[in-house]
Amino acid sequence: MYMFKYVLKRLGLMLLTFCVIMLICFTLIKLLPISVPREMGVDVNIGYFRLEQRGYIKDLVFQNGIVVGFTRVPILTQLWYYIKRIFTEGDFGIGTTIASYSLKPVWDVFIEKLPPTVLINVYSTIIGVPIGLGLGIIAALKKNKWQDQLINIIIILLISLPSIVLGLLIQYFACYKWGWFPIIMDSGYDYFSWSMFKSMLPAVFALCLGSIAGYARFTRAELAEVLTNDFMLLARTKGLTRGQATIRHAMRNSMVVIFPSILSEFISVLSGSLIIESMFSIPGVGRLYLDSITYQDYDFFMLLSGFYCLVGLVAGIVIDISYGFIDPRIRMGAK
Prior knowledge:
By secondary structure, the chain is mainly α. It contains 11 helices and 2 strands. A two-stranded antiparallel ribbon has the order 1-2. A hairpin with a 2-residue loop joins strand 1 and strand 2. Helix 4 runs antiparallel to helix 9 (about 240-280) and helix 6 crosses helix 9 (about 240-280).
């Protein structure tokens, strides 16, 4: 009962937080100067006409057949039109200033771009979690020995280097110098073919190397502390071997901290994929998000901001609830 009330309370706060953040995003991007990019073979007037049709500007002023001025629609009025279209028509908008997605529904483009982003993040988690936990367990069991020192050096190096630097190193050595992988991701939609998977690996490694260091650090710190507790000595005196005591007791107690860190690390990887997707030409949501900011495409920006914001908020709730499932003694919401 306590958990149910706690979840309802958190969901309500999440919804309130989401609405406030999206309102801030909408207001800030509307305060920016409106500029339609001039691209080869594209009539600049078309961009202004689309903005007018969406209810963002009005009263266009022409000079020699070119739009030279306009009047901004009040922000609250724009917000009303935007929310009304979403709830009455399911219309999240259309591409207005990004030439590649001109007049395309932003929701359809988002669904099309979502699989590559999800896959590289899932692959990085699948690869990073076992390796990171394994290194952390070895470092904890071999505390203050040469294995622990070596793993700590690797952890410090990987944590110190941002994912963009790791991506450049992987591109140069693994892709260009040694030719193990293609430099950019293959085109097409056959995401589960071996060729496509191989072309995703450089981006996956660039994302998961930092995560491996994070998992190893958390696991080493927590497991090393648990191994020194009195209940571990009691387990050994009852006849359990060191391995049995570690697996049955130490790891279970350590996971109270380690498992939530895995979820939070996944969210940080998802955020970090914004730059990595551009580096390795991954046709995903992150690259589209950067384009929406560059070209000030309002509808794309709002939808993608909402996506990343919602993922972060939901992850926060999942992390809190996970404590209760990992350790039954924890009752979230109880007094």
